[in-house]
Amino acid sequence: MRSFSRLLLLAVLASLLSGCGYNAIQSKDEQVKAGWAEVLNQYKRRADLIPNLVQTVEGYANQERQVLTDVTNARSRVGQINVNADDAESLKQFQQAQGELSGALSRLLVVTENYPNLKSDQGFRDLQAQLEGTENRITVARGRYITMVQDYNTYIRSFPQLVTAKLFGYAVKPNFTVDNEAQISQPPAVKFGAQAPAPAPAPPAPQQQPQSAN
Predict the structure, then answer these.
(1) Domain count, the chain
(2) Is the pLDDT of residue 190 over 80?
């Protein structure tokens, strides 16, 4: 009889928890964690490409020492951050460091336009393809993570999930800040040898008709 009562009590509790959104909260929380892991994975992939990129550029453009140093230092600062995605200040520092690295990489890529031999190097072109693909994956992973966090935060702020979340210690999660929402869906351009399109030819000037003699 006691066993039956316990089973009945557990069944009632499970039903109540499910009705209050406990299972859904857990599921959304795990989705956010998985999304964050993918963001970190793609950022790490980019960081792993940088030493080879710097070494290749250095072989052709050693005089660009300041730009190369900026990239190396920015990568080092990113590696020193032990980010906690559940802490708003920690996430802000992480995003700032990644932004500084993106800026340093952009300046480096601008410099490479001055070295035709570098742009024709096969190793450099391979790095171009890998870096461009990684930037795309970072953009996709960030966009998905932002959406997951928004969905999670909206859900636990709604009733009756709000009560369940507070009862079991589920808090609102900080998110990436985006100055321009278009940045989520449009990855930064990573083009090493792209030529500017030639301007369209000007339309021919209208020919002046000879005046007839009166």
Answers:
(1) 1
(2) no
**Lowest mean pLDDT, pick from 39-48, 124-133, 162-171, 205-214:** 205-214
Q: Which pLDDT band holds residue 119 (cuts at 50, 70, 90)?
A: confident
Does residue 160 have a cis peptide bond before it, meaning omega lies within 30 degrees of 0? yes
Position 212 in a domain:
no
C-alpha–C-alpha distance, residues 28 and 30, integer Å: 5
Question: How many other CB atoms are found less than 10 A from the CB of residue 86?
Answer: 14
- The pLDDT of residue 185: 42
Q: Give me the helix-helix angle, 22-60 and 65-80, nearest 10°.
A: 160
C-beta separation of 123 from 45 below 8 A: no
In a domain, 60, yes or no: yes
Q: Does any domain span residue 213?
A: no
- Find which of 61-70, 73-82, 188-197 is predicted with most confidence, using mean pLDDT: 73-82
Residue 162 within a domain: yes
Contacts with 204 (C-beta within 8 Å, 6 or more apart), sequence order? none
Q: Are 74 and 104 in contact (CB under 8 A)?
A: yes
Q: Please report, for residues 46, 69, 139, the alpha-carbon distance to residue 183 in angstroms, rounded to integers and kept in the order given.
A: 18, 27, 8
Two structure tokens written together for 49: 């490409």
